[in-house]
Amino acid sequence: MSGPKTIRLTMAQALVRFLRSQHVERDGREQPFFAGVWGIFGHGNLAGIGQALQENPELRYYTARNEQAMVHAAAAFARASNRLRAFACTSSIGPGATNMVTAAAGATINRLPVLLLPGDIFARRNVAPVLQQLEAPWSQDVSVNDCFKPVSRYWDRINRPDQLPSALLEAMRVLTSPAETGAVTLALPQDVQAEAFDYPAALFERRVWHIPRMPPEAELLARAAGWMRAARRPLIIIGGGVIYSEASEALDRLARATGIPVAETQAGKGALPWDHPQNVGAIGVSGGSAANTLAGEADLVIAAGTRLGDFPTASKTAFQDSGVRFVNINVAESDAHKQAALPLAADARIALEQLDEALGGYSVSADYRARVGALRREWQAEVDRLVKAGQGPPLSQAEVIGAVNGFTGPRDVVVSAAGSLPGDLHKLWRTRDPKGYHVEYGYSCMGYEIAGGLGVKMADPEREVYVMVGDGSYLMMASEIVTSIQEGLKLTIVLLDNHGFSSIGGLSQSLGLGGFGTQYRYRNPATGQLDGDVLPLDFAANARGLGAYAVRAVTRDDLCRALEEAKAQERTTVIVVEVDGEQRVPAYGSWWDVPVPEVSQMESVRRVRAEYERSRQDERSFL
Ligand SMILES: Cc1ncc(C[n+]2csc(CCOP(=O)(O)OP(=O)(O)O)c2C)c(N)n1
Ligand SMILES: [Mg+2]
């Protein structure tokens, strides 16, 4: 009698072989889940995972310059693929591993699947401490990879090769779950990666993970429809979940039929085109006048596919109607219950389709439709005013956004993440395609932009990708320009140089702190502070040094010419534009809770503290 068939492989070879055979299917469309493996080799993964990848070239290996960057690229790829495809990321032990922690947090916060495979210290321990091992006097069962626990949706350490199969199935369950997905970490001790085991052949068979579309529970759906019919000033807020579930058509139908206005969070922007009659644009701290006015008056908020973070809710001050109620449509129960909402735990597309049906011809009043139309027109006129400003040089950031937006085609993608750009893009960018706007604002991680742009380009190389990045973010991580050259994946990077942190500088000024420590200036011997001359940074030379084509633009005409030139280029192009950091896009009736010191020797701080205490009174708790 012979037992079940087995294959003798190292733990790392088994892992790579398993990744190759994983597929996903949604709505009858099937595809491989893993597009490849990102990595940087060291002694902690070279001979294990590295050798396994060498033996399995079908699973393509990509070298990055920085482990954080490769995880950003992987997360961006997953987002641009509506979470139906992903990358694994391999690192050595120690610093290579911990470099991934920041981007892992970003992936988990943004609910994006990424499989992290950090190398780990020896399971057999006899040669400890190995190079880069952090020792703890209180336990030998600890390594720096324990840092991944709070930032992962699933975490495991494979201390014996026979532990691998069950860990892999758990990893896939989480990565492909719309509600659970995020970073998954399998820490791989360096010695165990190279150990052989007789793995059951069944582990490597082609496996297709069905991505479910969970329908709403009938009773709650009926109640939600009842609340909507009774509402006089309803407002829909859309988040990333609407885009991931490909719910644009369902949303369009429901919004047109009912006349309910639709406000966009950062992750939801683009689900409806900017000129859709019910699209009232950005909401919250980085929102515009139309959405924020409607939020303030709404008696029912239908929040679909959003985490309701403090930006869309304006630190819980956005909704001021005394009787306002919430219906939350979300695959994650924890999001569905936020703000004591009626929890419609469901896939966004199915829920919107079923609500549309259940509403049976309901529409908001003609007065409300007219008000929504008027607020939209007023807000669009304001956007026109800002993007056409025609001042400078130096140009305003709004004008640069207008010029880039005007130049791009409907399917092109804009990518950004931190600084003043996300807020300005949220308000001003006119999106024409559900995948045309990619701003990472769950973690707002400086350094995401270029790496993220690379991930977006990998997901759909047919699209032109425009990365808009501040000088601060660029300095933090421009390294993946090199990777874009290596892979022939062209990005157009528009670098907005305002000599430092305009966003944080503005925030600092608004808190009475005068912009302390937010500009890129020499230390001034006279004051002992960083208020000397502007530092002489040459970003174009820097970009050229990394292999990009680089050009500087001063006027709007220069910028338009540079965009034409970039379009004709085959390699990554960096356009450096100096912008006026003091010319900011205003806020539109919103507030963000950033605590001001309760006591201070600075009179300016004491004054702002008094205003702060008044503003905080608008924060509401929904219980
Ligand atoms: C990794 C990281 N560190 C710090 C911050 C805090 N922060 C937010 S915006 C910002 C300044 C960004 O500067 P820049 O990219 O030049 O954009 P600008 O503010 O000038 O528009 C900082 C330091 C952050 N978001 N991410
Ligand atoms: Mg800057």
Helix content: 25-40%
Question: What is the topology, as strand order, of the major beta sheet?
Answer: 5-4-6-7-9-8
Low-confidence stretches: none
* Number of continuous helical runs: 23
> How far is it from the N-terminal to the C-terminal residue, by CA?
65 Å
Ligands bound, unique: thiamine diphosphate, magnesium ion
Measured on Cα atoms, how large is the radius of gyration?
25 Å
Question: What average pLDDT do the residues reach?
Answer: 97
Structural class: alpha/beta
Q: Major sheet: size, sense and barrel closure? A: 6 strands, parallel
Give a count of the beta strands, DSSP E runs of length 2 or more: 23
Beta-sheet strand percentage?
A: 15-25%
Shape: globular
Write structural notes for this entry.
Helices cover 36% and strands 18% of the residues. It has 23 helices and 23 strands. It has a six-stranded parallel sheet with strand order 5-4-6-7-9-8, sandwiched between helices. Strands 14-13-12-15-16-17 form a six-stranded parallel sheet, sandwiched between helices. Helix 6 (164-175) links the parallel strand 8 (154-157) and strand 9. Magnesium ion binds at residues 419, 470-472, 498, 500-502.
Name a few traits of the molecule.
alpha/beta, 6-stranded parallel sheet, 623 residues, binds magnesium ion, binds thiamine diphosphate
Task: Please write out the topology.
Blueprint: E1 6-10, H1 11-20, E2 22-26, E3 29-32, E4 34-39, H2 46-55, E5 61-63, H3 67-80, E6 86-91, H4 95-98, H5 101-109, E7 114-120, E8 154-157, H6 164-175, E9 183-189, H7 190-193, E10 196-200, E11 207-210, H8 218-230, E12 234-238, H9 240-244, H10 248-258, E13 262-264, E14 279-282, H11 289-297, E15 300-304, E16 325-330, H12 333-336, E17 342-345, H13 348-359, H14 366-387, H15 397-407, E18 413-416, H16 421-428, E19 437-439, H17 448-459, E20 465-470, H18 471-476, H19 480-487, E21 492-497, H20 502-510, H21 539-545, E22 549-553, H22 556-568, E23 573-578, H23 603-616
Helix pairs in contact: 1-2, 3-5, 3-17, 8-13, 10-13, 11-14, 15-16, 15-22
